[in-house]
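User: Could you check the structure of this?
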Amino acid sequence: MLRLKVIWLLLLLTISFPSFSQQLAQIEATVTNMAKEPIEGATILLTSTNKGAKADKAGSFRLKDIPHGHHEFTISAVGYKTLKRRFFINKSIEFLEDIVLTAKNSSLDEVQVNGKTTSKKIKESGFNVNVIETKQYANTNSDINQILNRSTGVKIREQGGLGSRYSFSLNGLSGNNIKFFIDGIPIESFGSGMSLNNMPVNIAERIEVYKGVVPAQLGSDALGGAINIVTNRDYKKSLDVSYSIGSFNTHRAAVSAGYKHPKNGVMINLNSYYNFSNNDYLMRTNPDAGVYLKVPIPPENALFDTLKSARRFHDDYRSFMTQVEVGISNKKWADIAVLGLTYNDVYDQQQTAATQERVLGQVFSKSHTLIPNLRYRKDKFIFEKLSATVYANYSRGENVITDTSSRTFYYWNGIATEYSPKAGELGSNKSITHQKINNSFSQVNLNYQLSTKHLFNFNYNLNTNKRENYNEIDPYNDFYNITNQIYRTNIGLNYQQILWTGRLNNSFFIKDYGLSGKTNTAEKTSKNYFGYGAVTNIKLGSTYGVKLSYEHAYQLPTFTELFGDGLNVMANEGLKPANSDNYNLNLYYGATFGNHNLTIDASTYYRNVKDYIIQKSYDTPQGQKQLADNEGGVKVNGADFEIKYSYKSDFMAVLNLSYYNAVDRERFDKFNREKITYKMRTPNEPWLFGNLDISYGRNNIVGLKDNRLQLNYYLQFVNNYSLSWSKLAKKSTKDYIPAQWLHNIAATYSFNNNKYNITLEGKNLTNQIAYDVFKQQRPGRSVYLKLRYLIRSTH
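Assistant: Sure, the predicted structure tokens are below.
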């Protein structure tokens, strides 16, 4: 602390010394385009000198030590007309107002941003990464999951409607092989209420999808890839409010707001959302898929009838989340320093067990979590070329699972035929299971910029998870009274080099994974695992090139995989970490012809996985349940392809197709017997799917100004696939999921420069019977109306 104080004092004296001879000012400004969007990378130059600055991602910059008086400034950015402005400076901190650049070769309502954005910088790294700009989806009723489901190589399968459990697949690896982050922080550290399938797209600025090889700075045990959601925050002024209503009594509301005082740097950020749905869509008998809704015939209930359809009757879902951050910015000791508090609350009725054959009628769960956090960022930390980011939080929550119905079996007509005064639906005895969950997470990221061509990054993560269970009805029953605890550490070191005037971009990294665990029935164990990798991007031309990447990665068992969830997932404390050698080859091409733009991206990959963690289903007296288990060796290879065409800001079409082949390559089991699953595809995984997204928009329609009509059509295709190992299932049985073609449309009308937005959206227009994980039926045709109000000012 003494050393830091001395450094700060010396810096203060150095900065203050010139002020004895003349009055100096600090200049602050923000550069935007005509759509009021910040222009990252814009430069401002004091015309009479060589003093200048470059805008950050919010379009903001600062110039220090500017003498008081009249000055001319030159503001420029790639793709925009250069602007010259004169200002009179007479304050210690002066904010330059209304710096707006107009795009070259473009009308005021057809702004094209050609500068090097953050998204473009990420894409130019050697990582095989998709960067999804969420602006184009912000007016839709979609959540983060539904947006990701349109991305190349991604397949998300939900077990029902809003808030249902889901499985995420990326390039052939799924489930917990894929890790999720919010602003670089693991999503599980925010509690159960923070989930991709209830987070509205409005709170996200962009989504980064890393395939196979994950940057060391994310600090995670991702085996097959990672998703990083970058939220809207740290703006000068912003307010984004939306509300939608739709089928199945679905209501969704979201608020995202931020304010930063231009002089003292005090800032506040708010993100909040509320979701509710009855999820009472029709379940349907489907002989082609081997699905029948059977109900008993009274009074004997010995014979059964088949319902053509039945409405879900116990599937309400409600979630609420609020996150508030208060802090300061642009100080000598911190660029950003904030304290935050997040609260989330979830109420979730359970309509089915692991499969829809087991119908539940009264089981429900409630959970809440409170998470205080600290976030700190400083460039030029101690040293000129060192920057630091520190984050820490502590979450304390409780999940209560109530199973007290005395009914042991329900049918789709809502009637239970069996009664037992002591029994529940999930177990032989009634239970109100309390799970007290305490998690802590801390992260340190250090970046050292040796030069413009060489960058070093160090990352350290510590994650602790503790859960205590007890049964409120029978608190002295040791079957429920269980304490589990695990500790996970991730250490990463990355070296990046940019050579040949930016045509070669390389990164080399190493990772250390640590896992230790403890239960009330076993001693604490601790193990470490070592990973490594490298990536490169070779630019063969200004808009085309090749990427190569490799990583030896580990995926540590998650808390739920080890200890279960108390509902549908059974515990497996002997589960081993999975490891994989991941290889990626990516080719990309881009071209612009006048107002036409074309991009092509093609990838192929190979994964050699050992101790692969796979989700299996088992029949129990309480219906089917899931269990995570190790498979000796699974090899995955595949390819994905995407082509995107756009014309001005009016028309855009995106087509992508993904294929993968994940098979069991381990021929013999531990008893040296040939496995029946040898060379079979892994179960319950779609292996061929694609998306077509077409949008058309026009500005200033019907002679009015500052408005826009946007139309969108979205098609999703999934080929048929098996719920069990491929050769063990037949298309005529219930173990097979038929091919699916889902059609969706949306129309958005925006006016007053996107301040007001109205969207009407229709999903699954043909009302196709769609299935997902373990053949759970998803919602049919649905309609939604969304209203959105947006103000985003950087002044």
